Amino acid sequence: MFIIFYAAGAGAAEYRTGETVTIRHNDSLTTDLFAGSRYVTIDGVVEGDIYVGCEQVTVDGDVLDDVLAGCRQLEIKGRVHDMVIGFAETIRIDGEVDGDVLVFGGRILISDRAKIKGNVFAGSGELRLEGGSIGGNLSGGAGKVYLNGFVKGEVDLEAGDIDFGESYMAKGGTRLKLHKDLSAYNLKYTPDDLEVVVKSPDLFFQNFVFYWYALSLLIVGFLIIILLKNFSRDYLSYISTKTGLSLGIGFLALFMTPIAVLILAILVLTIPISLILLACYLILLYIGISFTALFVGDFVISRFKTEDSARNLYLPMLVGILIVVLLPEMPFVGWLITLLIICFGLGSLLTYLWYLKNRPQVAQNESN
C-alpha cells in the first residue's frame, strides 16, 4: 500500500529515513521530500512539498510548496510559501506562511514573529495567538484560547476558556461559542464587536449511535483476537517501540491515500485500482481503531499486572474499547483524541505489515 499511494501521490520525490534527516543551510532539494525519522530539520531550501512522519520537525529555511507533518513537535521558524498542515502534540509558528494553516495539536502557539497570509483553522487543547498576524480568517476550537494579535478576517471559535490581550484586533469581527456566559470569565479586555453564543454540550450517552458504535467495535475486536491471536500478540510486541513512528505514518496515510485514490480515478484506466485502494483504506481505518483499542488496553493493564506472552487478550481489548469510545466524547479536545486514535491505528497496522513484508519468517510463524 505504501508503494501505491506514494507513487500515485508523490511523483518525483526523494525519500529519506534514519535517526536524523537534515537539509543543510547551503543545500537545495528540487523535488518533494518524504521523510520518516526521529528528527527532521530544514535549514536550506526545498522546492517541492514536505511530507514527514517523525518526532520533531523544524523548518528554519525555505519550503517553496506545502508542509504536511505528523509528529510530536512542529516548529515553523523560516518560510513556507504555501500551506501548512500539521498534526502534533506541540505546534509553534514563529515564521512566515504564505498560504493557509490547518493545524491540530495539544498546544498551538502563533508567536509575535509569525506572519500568516492565509486562513488558519486550529483545533487543540490550547490555542495562543501571541502578537502574530493572520491575513485571513481564524476558526476552529480549543479548550483554552488566548487572543492577542491581528486578524485581518473574522474570528470564529468554540472555546472552553477565553482571554484577550490588549493588542487583539479582528477586522472581520469576533464570534465565540462558549459553554458559559461571558460574565463568568472575568475578562480584563473585551473586543467591542464581540458576539457570543452560549452552547450547552451534547450528552453523548443519549445518542443511540454511541452504543451501536461501541458494540460493533467490541464484536470486531473480539473477532480479530479469535482469528488473529498470534498476529495480535506479535503486533503488540513490535508496536510498543514504534508508537511515534506509527502516529506519523498514520497521519501521512490518512491524508495522502484519498489523494492517491483521486489521481488513480482521474487516469480512468486505473479506476479499478483506485476502488480497491479506497476499499482497503476504509477497512484499515475501521480495523485500525480496534488495534488502537488493543494497544491502549494492553498498556493500561500492564501498568497493574505482569503476565507472560500467552496472556488473554480479551480483557485488554474490552478495556481499550471502553477508552477509545469514551475519550473522544471529551469537550473541545474529543476530535483531537479521535484523530490520534485513527492515525495510530492506521499507522501501526501499516508499520507492522511493512515489518512482516520484510521479515518473511515472522509471517511464516504466524501461519503455523
Task: Provide a quick synopsis of the model.
With 368 residues, this protein is of the alpha/beta class. Helix content is 39%, strand content 32%. Helix 5 (271-302) crosses helix 7 (334-358).
Radius of gyration: 22 Å
Q: Note the main sheet.
A: 12 strands, parallel
Average pLDDT metric: 85
Order of helices and strands: HEEEEEEEEEEEEEEEEEEEEEHHHHHHH
Task: List its salient traits.
368 residues; alpha/beta; nine-stranded parallel sheet; disordered N terminus; disordered C terminus
List the helices and strands and how they pair.
Elements: H1 2-10, E1 13-23, E2 28-29, E3 32-42, E4 45-46, E5 50-59, E6 62-63, E7 67-70, E8 73-76, E9 79-80, E10 84-93, E11 96-97, E12 101-110, E13 115-116, E14 120-129, E15 133-134, E16 138-147, E17 150-151, E18 155-164, E19 169-170, E20 174-178, E21 194-198, H2 208-227, H3 229-239, H4 243-266, H5 271-302, H6 314-326, H7 334-358, H8 360-367
Parallel strand pairs: 1-3, 2-4, 3-5, 4-6, 5-7, 5-8, 6-9, 7-10, 8-10, 9-11, 10-12, 11-13, 12-14, 13-15, 14-16, 15-17, 16-18, 17-19, 18-20, 20-21
Helix pairs in contact: 1-4, 2-5, 2-6, 4-5, 4-7, 5-6, 5-7
